[in-house]
What we know:
44% of the residues lie in helices and 10% in strands. By secondary structure, it is mostly helical. The strands form 2 sheets. It has a two-stranded parallel sheet with strand order 1-4. Strands 2-3 form a two-stranded antiparallel ribbon. Helix 1 crosses helix 2.
Amino acid sequence: MTLPRRQLRIAAESARFGFVFARRGLVPEAASSWFLPRIVGISQAMEWVATGRVFDAAEALAGRLVSRVVPDAELLAGPRGRSTAEIAENTSAVSVTLSRQLLWSMLGACTPGKRTGSTHA
């Protein structure tokens, strides 16, 4: 799983996850050190990174790494899965794109009125 490229994080029941960097004498890569604490909170991120253990989809769901766990066959149903089809069929692409940009930009804001990189006062 490459965290920065995933807006929807849905796992199959058989999925396994691990931030095994420490077990290999490495530090987190692929922006994991930036994204992981923002997705699951610093305490959960530190536990997974410090232990380097592999965990199942149920733990990933409990720790908020994924938003849903589905049967393996359901995840692979169709070229992009059910959630992507639901978005494509029921929403505006422009609205979803702008909403995604707004949500990510607000992560760095100190107040609701000031987003990081904003050209507005």
